[in-house]
TrEMBL record:
Protein name (record): Galactose-1-phosphate uridyl transferase N-terminal domain-containing protein
Annotated organism of origin: Candidatus Yanofskybacteria bacterium CG10_big_fil_rev_8_21_14_0_10_36_16
GO biological process: galactose metabolic process
Active site: H163 (tele-ump-histidine intermediate)
Chain ranges of the Galactose-1-phosphate uridyl transferase N-terminal domain: 5-173
Keyword set includes Transferase: yes
Keyword Transferase: yes
Gene Ontology molecular functions: UDP-glucose:hexose-1-phosphate uridylyltransferase activity; zinc ion binding
Keyword terms: Carbohydrate metabolism, Nucleotidyltransferase, Transferase
Entry-linked Gene3D superfamilies: HIT-like
Length: 333
């Protein structure tokens, strides 16, 4: 079953993808991910029955860097990708078919995690993300696309082999809708992009900046939801990640490799999630450029979410983001 069900009160969408219960390495029952290459389904993609959608060579062209495969246990159904998903009758609940793309970026080196990639390698990785993002935009009617990485069991990782994922959907998740609405409201009231204001203020404060170059800035946000949260923003303030110019990729690679390297060394390679948040693409317009900026969020899993957070929706963070950023700045890599 692949379908979205919407809560009639909160508007929250929940994606039901029951086939994913069959995927290997369920983090609920695993105490540690198996690092052995012998049992890794990503070591030989053909033998393990994975369909390779595209192969990306490394910069020198002497070997592959990333292979993009169709997820064997997709959360969404590619055959049902449409801008207006089919409604499923369910009394007074809003239920629609879950169409979209679900692919995996498989990195060649089994034992080399993303945090150990240098800036040039990271720039290539983000070029691959952007290319596949662009492919989904051009070849589907999806409304929303998310690129993400789950590193470690606490972050929802099920396999040790380094990989990222991309999922596109025919609905816009509630959190994305709220972010867009709030950003637009701020713009209407203040005639300024909220993210521009945030970045200007963080740079002027200078307390929470971890890394900055000509095109990107990375910091622990003043309102960090979890300990050691990191955000990376482009300074050109564009709304769509897939429109990032080739000339920006080297600086993006330097920013991401630096902060991932510092975070991993300072926190001893914690489990983490990272996401690329980009404006919806359902109409391919630039209307979001007035008030939204694409960005990267990195969320280390150093504490468990407890009952208060789950019950109230209010995060409890025991780490001052000023101190988190100071730790990262002082960490040499």
């Amino acid at each position: 079953m692949n379908e979205f069900r919407q809560d009639m009160i909160s508007g929250l969408w929940v994606l039901f993808a029951t086939n994913r219960a069959r995927r290997p390495g369920d983090p609920i029952v695993c105490e540690a991910l198996d690092k052995s290459k012998d049992v890794c389904p990503f070591e030989d993609l053909e033998i393990s029955g994975n369909k390779v959608e595209k192969t990306y060579l490394n910069k020198s062209g002497d070997d592959w860097l990333v292979k993009v495969i169709s997820n064997k246990y997709p959360a969404v159904d590619r055959s049902k990708t449409t801008r207006e998903p089919k409604q499923i009758k369910a009394d007074f609940f809003n239920v629609v078919e879950a169409g979209g793309y679900h692919e995996v970026f498989v990195f060649r080196n089994h034992d080399k995690v993303l945090a150990d990639y240098n800036s040039d390698e990271m720039a290539e990785v983000f070029g691959v993300y952007r290319d596949r993002f662009h492919h989904v935009v051009d070849n589907t009617s999806s409304k929303y696309i998310l690129v993400f990485t789950n590193y470690g069991i606490k972050a929802g990782g099920t396999l040790f082999h380094p990989h990222s994922q991309i999922i596109s959907t025919s609905v816009i998740p509630l959190s994305a809708q709220n972010s867009l609405r709030d950003a637009e409201d701020y713009f209407v009231k203040n005639s300024q992009k909220p993210y521009d204001k945030m970045i200007e203020w963080e740079i002027s404060e200078a307390k929470r900046i971890i890394y900055e170059n000509e095109d990107f800035v990375a910091f622990c946000p003043f309102v960090s939801r979890v300990p050691y949260e990191i955000r990376i923003f482009p300074k050109d303030s564009t709304s769509h990640f897939w429109k990032t110019d080739d000339s920006k990729l080297p600086d993006l690679g330097r920013a991401v490799s630096t902060v991932l390297g510092k975070m991993s060394k300072a926190l001893k390679y914690p489990d983490y999630n990272f996401f690329i948040h980009s404006a919806p693409v359902y109409d391919k317009s630039d209307k979001f450029d007035d008030y939204y900026t694409w960005h990267i969020e990195i969320m280390p899993k150093v504490e468990f979410v407890g009952g208060f957070e789950i019950g109230s929706g209010v995060y409890i963070n025991a780490i001052d983001p000023d101190e988190a950023a100071k730790l990262f700045r002082e960490t040499e890599i």
